[in-house]
Design brief:
The complex is a heterodimer of chains A (786) and B (225). By secondary structure, chain A is α+β, with helices and mostly antiparallel strands. Chain A is built from 25 helices and 26 strands. Helices cover 50% and strands 18% of the residues of chain A. Chain B has one domain: 3-Layer(aba) Sandwich (Rossmann fold). Chain B contains seven helices and ten strands. In chain B, the strands form two sheets. A six-stranded mixed β-sheet of chain B has the order 6-7-8-3-9-10, sandwiched between helices. A four-stranded antiparallel β-sheet of chain B has the order 2-1-4-5, covered by helices on one side. Classes of the chains: A alpha+beta (786), B alpha/beta (225). Chains A and B meet through α1, α11 and α14 of A and α2 and α3 of B. The complex binds adenosine-5'-triphosphate and magnesium ion. Chain A: It comes from Leeuwenhoekiella polynyae. Chain A: This is ABC-type antimicrobial peptide transport system permease subunit.
Amino acid sequence: MLRNYIKIAWRNLLKNKAFTIINLSGLTIGMTAVLLIAAWVQYQMGFERFHTHEDSLFKVYNRSTGPGEIYTWDVTSGPLGAALEKDFPEVAQSSRIYWSKDRLFSTGNTHIKAKGNDVDNAFLSMFSFPLLQGDSAHALDAVNTVVITEELAIKLFGTADVINKMVKIDNEDTYQITGVLENLPANTDFDFDYLVSLKANENLYSNNNSWSTNTFYTYVQLKPNTAVDEFNHKIKEEIKKYNAESETEIFLHPIKKWHLYSRFENGKVAGGRIETVRLVGLIGILILVIACINFMNLSTAQSRKRAGEVGVRKVIGAGRSSLMLQFIAESVLLASIAGVLAVLITIVVLPAFNQLIGSSVFINWLSPWLWLGLGVFILITGLLAGSYPAFLLSGFSPIKAFKGNFKKRGCVFNSRKVLVVTQFSVGIVLTISTVVIYNQINFVQNRDTGYDINHLIEIPLEGDIDKNFELIKNELLKNGAIEAMSKTAFGVTSEASTGSGFSWNGKSEEDEDLSFSLYRTSGDFVQTMGLNLIAGRDINLAQFPRDSTSILINEQALKKTGITDPIGKTIKRKDLTLTIAGVFEDFIIGSPYEEVKPMIVMGYKNYNYNTLLRLNPNNTTQKNLGLIEQVFKKYNPAYPFVYEFVDKSYAKKFADEKQMASLSFLFAGLAIFISCLGLFGLAANMAENRAKEMGVRKVLGASAQHVARLLASDLLKLVVISLLIASPMAYYIMQDWLQDYTYRVAIEWWIFIGTAAVLLIITMLTVSFQAIKAAWVNPVKSLRTE
Amino acid sequence: MLLQLNHIYKWVKQGGKRVFLLNDISLDVKEGEFISIMGPSGSGKSTLLNVIGMLDEFQEGEYIFNEEPVHSLKEKQRAKLYKEYIGFVFQAYHLIDELTVYENIETPLLYKNSKSSERKALVADMLDRFNIVGKKDLFPAQLSGGQQQLVGIARALIAKPKLLLADEPTGNLNSKQGEEIMELFRELNQEGVTIIQATHSESNAAYGNRIIHLLDGSKQHQTSN
Ligand SMILES: Nc1ncnc2c1ncn2[C@@H]1O[C@H](COP(=O)(O)OP(=O)(O)OP(=O)(O)O)[C@@H](O)[C@H]1O
Ligand SMILES: [Mg+2]
């Protein structure tokens, strides 16, 4: 019996080639999209899940009540980890990690910049980053030991067999390589080429033992079966034990949640990437629904053709269930073909997909679960897609079927209309959302940064640059490569550190915990950045040595502190008295989606890690860079010349949103495309079904144009209805999405008009091809075939 | 008695009024009879056959088939009865275009869940009997009208029905082909198959041993040969 069904199904597919192709491509595209999405979602969910101790590893977070809100952050003080380990038997071990650092590795004539972290020796036994060579438990015990990845080893030595070899770091100290790491997997948020023992650099971090300065990330591993909620309650006040002044509480955030849940609101997990994952997952389901609808639509569209067959089968003894089975077998067959094609296409397009959204999604084709899942998925798709036509067709009464007179026809057609409208509505919601997301990105990208972002480059302040700073600066000014140059704490596009505990004359109660973005410079900062100075002057330590206690503040700071006539006024922090030398207009540091915070830029000679240079706009960039390289090579010969354009670094802030935009662009496009395939099929079918009517009309004198319009208008109506339904939905969804951004675009009416116009044009093109074909056909021919 | 219709009424509502398609039809059919139904176009011949064939409903009256009260049977039971005892032949053949001659004839057996070997034997017999062995792998579109009707009859007979219903089985055929089909019917009837056919043709009707004349859904009179 089943063989008989499949045989018929196969012959039917071959007989209606055009339909089969349209139907199959719709389903294949839909399945491919779902496969890609599923792979992506699984990749996102798999972050940090490969650690053997995934259940007992945590990151320590701080929580502190500020004005009107609770702040949560993950940079902790130095002694916290050790204290936790000492005070609570539940803690098995802990490790600090210093922020990622780029360091210069040298061996012989090879010099390579690599990024990595300083960690405590427990790190390698806590996290599952296996060593190919070396002993995880003790690799970082000694000062001046380093473990490097296989990749870095090969870059440096041409071989991975480098255990116990020596390497010079930052042109100063020689380290012993005590381990070779397997290259990191794609699904981790850790990002290092090397790890060095934190002990080696402990003396470099001034705030090492301070309970009041947050400099390190702290990770702990709990003993198995520790109740985390209870434990979190126990450790809440840990900081207070050692620093009575502090109001900051701590809590643990599990490793499994780092990647997906990294946004905190009011001290509680509020979401993060999980929102995108959910949204994309939802889009995947919607696309599948669209593809299924397409399938149902096209199949039911053919019901007239199949009605005769149903009638005959019933007359010769077919029961309803066997007929349903037959039609479902057909759709499962088609779904299987689509499934196979989708797998092939997924293999081919996965690299391009990764490139588009900037990820490294991979699929383990050898996993039996994948194939099992795929099988179930195909079966479900087939069932879903086939059940409606099966139900409908098997219900035909043979007498009516023979007469070609379906009482149900109107109803069939109506449900088909509903399906088409649903399909298009989803496509339209996705399209409008895409436009809004792009709009938001554009809007924020075009936001006035507050400084002149062009012709600005950054060079890490390393090696001898600090020592020779004035020499370099003078030489570059003389040869005309730059207009200004400044030493700063860190890159101007990175997240600024924040600090509170400042006081000033007239400070009110509610400003108690006012937190400031903190920044440092040795001088010429305003000039180099191209900031607008509202009052006072730039800091310049070389010119005014007393500027080591001078500060610049931004407009926000002026507004929030309420200081009037600011120049010469002082702001205090503990025993430090800072004098305001200048006030500049706000500029964006950190997230461009947020409001600018009050900011303090301190005059500071040390602890600067960044060189900021304003290029001479009258020269070509190439010439400027050439001149700068010469000078840097001269004064800092051991280091390779590396630089970064500030505008490029700034653009990276949009990576997440761009990824979201790419995803929704891709899938909105697919949704519309599939819908159009469906519409095309529907138009073809309508034209076919109405061939006789059209023939008669033409014989009666209707023009081809009139006939074409008659056909097209029916389908256009559906698209218009979809637009009316989907537009408000899209509006609400996007309104909600935008809530996450303090600085956001308004949803403009032209988006809806534009989407509607484009969609209507596409629909016209899709439908009119069929309509015109039908209209031009010779009436004698269409009447005879009927 | 194979079947018995007692005061069957069938109507449709048009503009609030009842339009009778069958008006008080009573009919007894004994096993082994060959009945022809005649009447002008629109008189209700097809409707009556469909009711007898359980393809169509009626509003009033009793229908007893093989001692089962059809009017009070559930859909499922009725389908079972039908599958077991009735074969249908149409004017427009109604073969399945996507199936070959062989497969078309075999399909009713599939619905009866017969064994594969049994199916093969039965279909082979049938092909042989109707002299269409050479055509078994052709599709309906590749056959002449007469050949298609032969396949249609073969398919109706494959499940060994007691009753063969034929709605103008020769309507689309030329007179020679028509005559062959009628001869075939006579043979079948002599083998014991009960036949009820609707026809416009006097000469075809004459093959039956009883002729029922319909007009506007009512039985006018009947003649016996
Ligand atoms: N579903 C229906 N609704 C309304 N009227 C119907 C319906 N089905 C059949 N009729 C009417 O019932 C009458 C009998 O139709 P039927 O097909 O039985 O006639 P017939 O004797 O077979 O005619 P012909 O010789 O042309 O085949 C006709 O007048 C027809 O219009
Ligand atoms: Mg008729």
